[in-house]
Design brief:
Elements: H1 4-52, E1 54-57, E2 60-63, E3 77-82, E4 88-91, E5 110-117, E6 121-131, E7 133-134, H2 136-139, E8 151-159, H3 161-196, H4 198-208, H5 229-276, H6 280-309, E9 322-323, H7 324-342, E10 345-349, E11 355-356, H8 360-377, E12 383-390, E13 395-403, H9 435-445, E14 449-455, E15 458-466
Parallel strand pairs: 1-7, 10-12
Antiparallel strand pairs: 1-2, 3-4, 3-8, 5-6, 6-8, 9-11, 12-13, 13-15, 14-15
Length: 472
């Protein structure tokens, strides 16, 4: 897997090389075309000058300045040919036995091309079609037809060494300059990428230092670029959530250990008593204590499992309507002794035929924990009200209200935290501080809504379920 640094380096250096290569090639081709164009212009001028020296007289074709071109064109290779046959009429002594290539051209037409010259030289030639100049005074009374010149072709060539040398110098310069620029830019690119990715390297080092003992620390985004601000924000938010989760798990484990320690100690004490006095009557008392303690521990373990799993035993089953009357009555039967012992004023406003749009096992757990919690935290002589409320076809609510309670408005959000209890209840082993947590977990899993309200010294908890969640 390639790194960001490697990808940026390849992209930037590859793009730079491509741009430099394309730019250098364009400069070279433009310069070459310009030099060749200027060279061809000079060749055409020489060919035209040579053609202007050709004159047709009664004795034949002559050069006005003799059989050789002017001294200024001594380096010019040339041939004069008859257009119809291509026969060479005149040629430069520089050509020796070599002849220039033949090319058919029209009158006043120029054609240029590269060619070979004596001495293995690279040359460039121009072919120019023209007619020899005729002076009527030179012909006198001769017939006019004799003074009608034929189409001639002048071929002029020059060594293109100056062009090649200039282009070679240009190519060398371009390569040297391009290489120097490439090296300089490569260094700048490497430094720029290193500088630009420094915040990511810094973040990587900070991530490498994260461990279970450093979750309370947060990533320092001072000096970080604007693009990394969302990353720092999300990482710090993730650490917040992780710390909160670990703190909840730690608190959960501590609370579970604390709650299990007392019944285990009592279980051990009861067993020791039964062993020490094995008579039937004390043994039966100890066994009854063991049974009661085991039942309490079973409820505690079931509550812990329910909270840990986050769903009900039959949460995947189809939803059914629960008969609230029988569920509430069953919960009150189990809590009857505590209600009578505290002389609570009990008001039940739940009809036998009333239905709650949720599975019966979930509703039974919710109702039992709400009622047990209210009974345990209501002082002697207090009141306990259980009722259902129906808002037409929209929702049904189970309401449990008890009081007086010693709660503040700031305590309401903590009611559903695991093992949270008022300090005065810490010595009461029968209430383990998980009841409302179980209620909250089941209710949210089933899509219900929980509302808490403190009216004076009266606490009201409402569990609302939409009627639409019930099956048809």
């Amino acid at each position: 897997m390639k790194s960001i640094r490697g990808r940026l380096t390849i992209l930037l250096l590859g793009g730079l090389a491509l741009a430099l290569g394309a730019g250098g090639a364009a400069v070279y081709w433009i310069s070459e075309a310009s030099l060749v164009r200027q060279f061809d212009a000079g060749l055409k001028s020489r060919a035209h000058t040579l053609a202007s020296l050709v004159k047709l007289e009664p004795e034949g074709l002559i050069f006005e300045n003799g059989d050789a071109p002017p001294a200024m064109m001594a380096e010019t290779y040339f041939e004069l040919r008859l257009g119809s046959s291509g026969n060479v009429l005149k040629k430069s002594a520089k050509l020796g036995d070599l002849s220039l290539p033949q090319c058919e051209v029209a009158e006043n037409e120029y054609v240029t091309a590269n060619t070979d010259l004596p001495g293995s030289l690279n040359g460039r030639a121009v072919w120019f079609g023209f007619r020899a100049r005729v002076d009527p005074d030179d012909w006198g009374n001769a017939e006019s037809s004799q003074a009608s010149p034929e189409l001639l072709t002048i071929v002029a060539a020059l060594d293109r060494g100056p062009i090649d040398r200039a282009l070679g110098t240009l190519l060398t310069t371009l390569l040297m300059v391009g290489l120097s620029v490439a090296i300089a830019v490569a260094i700048l690119v490497a430094l720029g990428i290193r500088w630009g990715l420094a915040p990511i390297d810094r973040l990587s080092r900070q991530l490498g230092r994260v461990s279970g003992t450093t979750l309370s620390e947060r990533f320092d985004n001072s000096g970080a670029p604007r693009e990394l601000a969302p990353v720092y924000r999300e990482l710090n938010g993730m650490l917040d959530r992780m710390e909160q989760t670990l703190e909840r798990e730690r608190s959960f484990a501590d609370g579970a250990a604390h709650e299990l320690r007392t019944p285990l100690a009592e279980l051990r004490a009861a067993a020791e008593v039964a062993i020490k006095w094995p008579e039937a009557k004390p043994a039966m008392v100890s066994l009854n204590q063991v049974l009661q303690i085991g039942h309490e521990m079973e409820q505690l373990v079931e509550s812990l499992l329910l909270i840990s799993r986050g769903n009900t035993a039959d949460g995947s089953s189809h939803l059914k309507q629960a008969a609230m009357g029988s569920i509430v009555q069953g919960c009150l039967v189990n809590a009857r002794d505590a209600i009578n012992q505290k002389r609570l004023q009990l008001v039940v406003e739940v009809g036998n035929g009333e239905l709650f749009p949720a599975p019966a096992p979930a509703v039974e757990i919710i109702a039992r924990n709400l009622i047990d919690n209210a009974v345990q935290y209501t002082p002697a002589g207090g009141n306990l009200t259980i009722r259902t409320e129906n808002s037409g076809d929209h929702s049904t609510a189970l309401v449990v209200e008890n009081g007086p309670v010693e709660l503040a408005q700031s305590d309401l959000p903590r009611l559903f935290e695991p093992f949270w209890r008022m300090d005065r209840a810490r010595s009461d082993r029968r209430h383990v501080g998980l009841g409302l947590t179980v209620v909250h977990r089941i209710a949210t899993t089933m899509g219900m809504r929980i509302e808490t309200e403190l009216r004076g010294d009266q606490l009201q908890i409402r569990v609302c379920a939409e009627n639409s969640i019930a099956p048809r």
